[in-house]
Amino acid sequence: MSSEEPLFTTPDPSEPPRVPSTSGNAGGVSSPLTSSGIRRSFEVGERRLEVLHGVDMELRPGERLALMGTSGAGKTTLLNILGLLDRPTEGKVHVEGVDAWSLSPAKRAELRNRRIGFVFQFYHLLPELTALENAILPAMILFKGSEFRRRREEFEGKAHDMLVRFGLSTRLGHRPGQLSGGEQQRVAIARALLLDPPILIADEPTGNLDRGTGEKVLEILLDEQKERDVSLLLVTHDERLAKRCERVLFMEDGLIQADSSAPMPT
């Protein structure tokens, strides 16, 4: 792909970017997210701290993949790189066949916004926006000016339907400070899904919630993942959450040390 060739050919977020064909999977279906040889180091004073030591991983189409490991194993660093929030020192990340870190910053940001949804432990909602406005934020960022104004009603309707389905029909006009933790996380899930991304990255999505609230939020997240056939990468310390996934990766000392299958619950 030349540097002048546009990555995206349509402003419609329901359509994926054009990507080179790959043959890594049966039937020619490209894995939504892969990494190869990911290394990450940081300069700490006069010494170099190596956090990731050449991580290879694959998120398969439509699967639930859990990533576990002790604190300091490198999970968050890897997640930031896979989510195109941080650049690796070495290695490649492919999003639907696109070498993400070879793109310009603007194209990479567009790829991330269109194709990857994020759910964070601490929600990261904008305090000055209402629940509905927070949920449509990805569209506000992607479609600027007249294009967003033309389609605002469409995105507000989509976000409204999700928030109502998530039990927030009476909270649409409330700001984050007026919402409980569980309500804020539901808004965050709606925000992550607004543009129908094929990839969902969830970093300890119930880690800041009590057990009962966390289970309700988890059911919403997993129901949406299954209904939409989204590929979910779930970082967690909770074995109960990991058991809801089809595969579990275990990280230790900056490497994936084990890859085991966990049966899906009925």
TrEMBL record:
SUPFAM superfamilies: P-loop containing nucleoside triphosphate hydrolases (SSF52540). GO terms for molecular function: ATP binding; ATP hydrolysis activity; transmembrane transporter activity. It comes from the Bacteria. It holds the Pfam family ABC_tran. One of its GO terms (cellular component) is plasma membrane. Residues 1-37 are annotated as: Disordered. Keywords: ATP-binding, Hydrolase, Nucleotide-binding, Transport. Residues 33-266 form the ABC transporter domain. Its EC number is 3.6.3.-. It is an enzyme of class 3 (hydrolase). Belongs to the ABC transporter superfamily. Macrolide exporter (TC 3.A.1.122) family. This is P-loop containing nucleoside triphosphate hydrolase. It comes from Saltatorellus ferox.
